[in-house]
Amino acid sequence: xxxxxxxxxxxxxxxxxxxxxxxxxxxxxxxxxxxxxxxxxxxxxxxxxxxxxxxxxxxxxxxxxxxxxxxxxxxxxxxxxxxxxxxxxxxxxxxxxxxxxxxxxxxxxxxxxxxxxxxxxxxxxxxxxxxxxxxxxxxxxxxxxxxxxxxxxxxxxxxxxxxxxxxxxxxxxxxxxxxxxxxxxxxxxxxxxxxxxxxxxxxxxxxxxxxxxxxxxxxxxxxxxxxxxxxxxxxxxxxxxxxxxxxxxxxxxxxxxxxxxxxxxxxxxxxxxxxxxxxxxxxxxxxxxxxxxxxxxxxxxxxxxxxxxxxxxxxxxxxxxxxxxxxxxxxxxxxxxxxxxxxxxxxxxxxxxxxxxxxxxxxxxxxxxxxxxxxxxxxxxxxxxxxxxxxxxxxxxxxxxxxxxxxxxxxxxxxxxxxxxxxxxxxxxxxxxxxxxxxxxxxxxxxxxxxxxxxxxxxxxxxxxxxxxxxxxxxxxxxxxxxxxxxxxxxxxxxxxxxxxxxxxxxxxxxxxxxxxxxxxxxxxxxxxxxxxxxxxxxxxxxxxxxxxxxxxxxxxxxxxxxxxxxxxxxxxxxxxxxxxxxxxxxxxxxxxxxxxxxxxxxxxxxxxxxxxxxxxxxxxxxxxxxxxxxxxxxxxxxxxxxxxxxxxxxxxx
Length: 654
Ligand code: WTA
Fold this sequence. Notes:
With 654 residues, this protein is α/β, with parallel strands linked by helices. It has 19 helices and 30 strands. The protein has an eight-stranded mixed β-sheet, sandwiched between helices. Strands 5-4-17-16-18-19-20 form a seven-stranded mixed β-sheet, with helices on both faces. Strand 14 (260-264) and strand 15 (272-276) form a beta hairpin. The longest helix is centred in the C-terminal third of the chain and has 18 residues, at 579-596. It binds 5'-O-[(S)-ethoxy(hydroxy)phosphoryl]adenosine. The site of 5'-O-[(S)-ethoxy(hydroxy)phosphoryl]adenosine has 22 residues, from helix 11, strand 20, strand 24 and strand 25.
């Protein structure tokens, strides 16, 4: 990291009334956490969250790495997100400004959201859902999706949201893995003017078998499209809720009660169910929403993530609502009806804090180059105060464009590094305190002991890359992998790392500032348009096409717009295809992967060989495959390669 990077100082107007104002304020929070981690988070837990029974214990390290936070306290997440704001007179404040795909706007107040949550919570109870039961939510972006999550939280049911782009097979695995008793879905979703199935995929998932735990499927009517109906199992959401009461006593749960599971990809095996707590998670969500976005009562926040991903959990459903903010929720896509949609919506709703992914920014830069009419400069974006980025590294060029053209040069960009497992922000600027360097996520959130270490857990000097770890526990951290505590320990707290949490990313700190830059995953996890996927998962999907595929290896290739793209090397059972045959089979395999996992996992590039490059001991040389995927000249030593002849075959694009 060279020292001549451009630094953007904190704008005076932002620093002035910020929750964390100026570097000394940041440093004093860090010092407070360093001095007594439990007391620090305990103070914040009391300030930001309402407890039914106050906790006496803050952090319990006794059962590490199964850390417990605020264990003897009780609370309810939905009470914290809804009731208490109504109780302090904010019932008429807009909680959600929902904009549909077709541009229709629906303003939902805190009182409305509370009543809708209570009705659905009562409906779930009527169907026999109890505290500790699991409910799968397979929904598009909608107020109902947020309500479904809140309703589960209200009755102590653990939700597991499955992104609406996952296939029936993936959905089945997640329903079966969680042992869900109810699935909440919609008839269809509406995105970019298109009606896409949801309920039909739930039907297909259940028909695949292993979902006997599911007693009811509750269906939100979004489009009114034709769907199949099982009279014994399927229920319309509006019919289930219309006769229910507007009030529902919250189920007070212990702080460690699992609020949700969220399946995510790792480097080995099937996706794992990341288990989050109620108390610690909510504390991290509330404090980070408040500080990282510097949210004030009058702000209009908009996080463009989907509720199917962790960003939609923490920075739509729980964080903003827990602090009583007003937020925009958007059903559609950034490019419909045109690629000016984001800017139009910021203008229309006077959004002041905007949080999106680098992929979206990069694709909008491209769209703008092709069509200046949708340039952000054509819209009135004066309401913007703070911008955010999440999900993947933001390259300095995209950062600068976002800063200049969207933020008018006056809005700090918070480049927030975190993960499904971390629950909330881990390394991020605080807009009123941290001078910015494009491409760096800057400094740890106060109370997060992030560090860069070597393979044995020892600190590496600044300027030298290493493994990103977190040395001490934090409230929002993953509590377990659902049903697999051994995998939890091994994946995140490997014995050689002195008990530190292993993020799975590489990082480097700047010699002078100590700022962090994330250098990317160190394992076999890909990040395609901010969607996280394991190469193993895609390989398993390919080889499960037993009629065609003998062997497959998947690697990522850097991509200017999507961050990475998926490149698959495939050995067929039959002869190696070429020309039209190769293109036809590649298309067939893409379709297969979409069926197995979801369209987001389709390999962009598929190449065929008589074999894969292997060492004499039979190990696939993945580094070599990564070079081939990039069309790079091969510089690696290939003397140990068993079958060098396949390299020419694999270099051929289809
Ligand atoms: C990557 C998304 C660089 C990283 C919240 C991490 C980032 C993975 C950033 C987690 C960032 C996320 N800069 N890389 N600001 N944010 N990542 O679980 O590789 O979907 O490990 O959580 O995304 O992805 P996940």
